[in-house]
């Protein structure tokens, strides 16, 4: 039988050809990779995201979470067995330490027993249980619940009952702890105890015997709340007179109340009328004051208009006087200017005639005496012929 061994010599003992092949492979593996790999640290966007943005978001998120975190409160009202007391359990769940906590019943503090974050108390009265828990960050939570499981009211008696000279039949009930029929009895007008003749616990019907005219029934529940209604048999004659007196007194009181109400209504109506009249007078006074103000304003406007008209008249008169003065000055200047050349011409002609003597012709004299009209400068030139 031929056995083949699985032994292989170490690489150092293998042939050179085998060694050369491994050397070639290692040489090939040592070739440089043309695709250079870059680290994530060389990417500025990724680096900023990891080292700045993410820490900023995480830190601010934690700060916001703890700043607005509100503790959770669980309020559990247990079941009562005796209708006298009930256990209340409060559980507070908070990641932060509590700064303050309070439990009240109708605004009155309750004594609580603490076990970690669980509080327990025993209630002996109905009301509103309010629990408030506040953590160190200032955030608080309040829960409340109405407790109505305790029996703190007396049994009730139906208004429909039967009463005669022999028996009294009533119906009693209690919705919480129930009526304690063992403590159900009556007392007559002499204070003697009277036991009921029959009791139907399913319907609550109780029958008492009547040994007198009045009986007081004692009804109690299992908690101890009791009621004691009284029943009396009417006696003809005396009770009728008493009822009539009561009716008369009731009618008189009603009449008095009606009269007082009428008097109050009349007084109120008078006060209302006076208030209305005063309001009207006030309105009239206000209207008159407004009219006076308007008249005063109109008078002021009229005065202003009159003053303006006077100023306008004065301005017109002054303008007219100025125009007249200018016209007069112009006329005076023109007259003086015309008279001056004429006088100068006459004087020149006369002197010329005297100088020439009688032998000079009149033509020459007239030519010599003819004046020249003044030039634009206002001066007059006279021409004198030379011999």
From TrEMBL:
Entry's transmembrane regions: 49-69
Record's compositionally biased regions (Acidic residues): 239-260
Biased composition (Polar residues): 354-367, 374-387
Superkingdom of this protein's organism: Bacteria
Keywords: Membrane, Transmembrane, Transmembrane helix
Residue span of region Disordered: 1-38, 239-387
Name of the protein described by the UniProt record: Uncharacterized protein
Species: Candidatus Enterocloster excrementigallinarum
């Amino acid at each position: 039988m031929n056995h083949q061994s699985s032994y292989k010599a170490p690489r150092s003992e293998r042939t050179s050809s085998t060694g050369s092949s491994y050397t070639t492979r290692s040489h090939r593996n040592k070739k440089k990779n043309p695709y250079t790999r870059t680290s994530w640290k060389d990417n500025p966007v990724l680096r900023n995201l990891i080292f700045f943005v993410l820490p900023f978001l995480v830190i601010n998120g934690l700060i916001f979470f703890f700043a607005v975190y509100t503790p959770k409160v669980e309020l559990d009202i247990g079941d009562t067995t005796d209708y006298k007391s009930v256990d209340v359990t409060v559980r507070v769940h908070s990641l932060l330490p509590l700064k303050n906590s309070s439990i009240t019943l109708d605004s009155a503090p309750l004594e609580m027993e603490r076990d970690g974050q669980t509080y327990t108390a025993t209630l002996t009265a109905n009301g509103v249980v309010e629990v408030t828990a506040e953590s160190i960050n200032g955030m608080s939570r309040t829960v409340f619940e109405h407790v109505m499981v305790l029996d703190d009211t007396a049994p009730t008696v139906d208004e429909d009952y039967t009463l005669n000279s022999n028996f009294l039949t009533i119906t009693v009930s209690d919705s919480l702890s129930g009526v304690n029929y063992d403590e159900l009895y009556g007392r007559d007008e002499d204070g003697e105890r009277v036991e009921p003749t029959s009791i139907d616990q399913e319907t609550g019907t109780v029958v008492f015997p009547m040994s007198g005219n009045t009986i007081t029934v004692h009804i109690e529940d299992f908690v101890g709340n009791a009621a004691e209604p009284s029943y009396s048999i009417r006696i003809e004659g005396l009770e009728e007179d008493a009822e009539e007196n009561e009716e008369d007194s009731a009618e008189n009181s009603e009449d008095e109340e009606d009269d007082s109400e009428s008097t109050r209504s009349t007084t109120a109506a008078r006060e209302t009328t006076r208030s209305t009249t005063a309001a009207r007078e006030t309105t009239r006074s206000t209207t008159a004051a407004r009219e006076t103000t308007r008249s005063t304003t109109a008078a002021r406007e009229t005065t202003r208009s009159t003053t303006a008209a006077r100023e306008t008249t004065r301005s017109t008169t002054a303008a007219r006087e100025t125009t007249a003065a200018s016209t007069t000055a112009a006329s005076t200047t023109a007259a003086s200017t015309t008279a001056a050349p004429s006088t100068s011409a006459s004087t020149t002609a006369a002197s010329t005639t005297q100088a020439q003597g009688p032998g000079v012709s009149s033509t020459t004299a007239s030519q010599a005496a003819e004046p020249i009209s003044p030039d634009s400068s206002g001066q007059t030139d006279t021409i004198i012929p030379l011999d």
